[in-house]
Amino acid sequence: MCTDTQEPTSTQIAANMSPLVLVNAFQAPRLAYDTARKSFYIDTSIPSLTAEAESKIAMYKGRFDMLHQRVLRNKLFSRPILQLKQARRDFIEIVPLQSLVSSKGVKAVLGLISQLEDGCYYVEDDTGNKPIDLSKVTEQTTGLFTENCVIIAEGILRTDGVFEVRALGFPPMETREESLDSVRGMDAFGAGIIPTDEMPKVLAAEQGAQQEMFVVLSDVFLEVPETIERIKNIFDAYETQPSVPSLFIFMGNFSDARVSGASNTAKVREGFARLADLVGKYERIQAESTFLFMPGMGDPGLSDMLPRYVKCVIST
Description:
By secondary structure, this protein is α/β, with parallel strands linked by helices.
């Protein structure tokens, strides 16, 4: 059966050094960037499944601000602190679209590709938008450029108000260490912060966990009797091994719409009950494995959106 469980806090997680931490997507910290203070902070506003229309605008702006600050931290786009003759001159200055009107020559902008008019593409940032002409692009980085993606474009603003792009690319990547340094010790994931003096223990634990296994199963139709039989075959195989998987991930849909025509909640519940009875027959798997269930789009829920909410453990 499914029972709610009390999730540990970030402090408890860091203290206990649990080798496996499951973070609820609905409870993970939401980092936001303050463009005025130029620093990250935890967004404590309460999310809602029935958010206002402005939330979509805020989502795109938040994503743009995140990429903007990352680009400006890259040495290729950061202005030298000391404006001396020996200071670095080989940087590319990112300018806002609004400033193109009063500037001349080739300029670089960071913006979102959008189609504000049918058949007419624009590049826009938080200061405005300009139509773009991509027919003159002579240099571009590898990648797929689509609507609503953020790009770095270098070109000139023509007299007709169109930004003629000469070079096109994506914002540069950065290492995990650089990203963590930018958030200055904030818990960006929800699994707790590991103190520096505890890192040797974590690395040693990783080296000693070479036999750890995760098993991922998708489209687990629990209402279909053959599914339980095949899961039993999997359990039989692992039960004879020196170690059993640390984590079983069951991904929906848990109901086969081709059989029932729609999700049958009663039959799915019966399927979970049969699965719980099956797990109870394997002592090692029951004692040493964790089960994570991720509902699919066809499973019962509040809306047709991901992630779907579920929090349960198998118990007997």
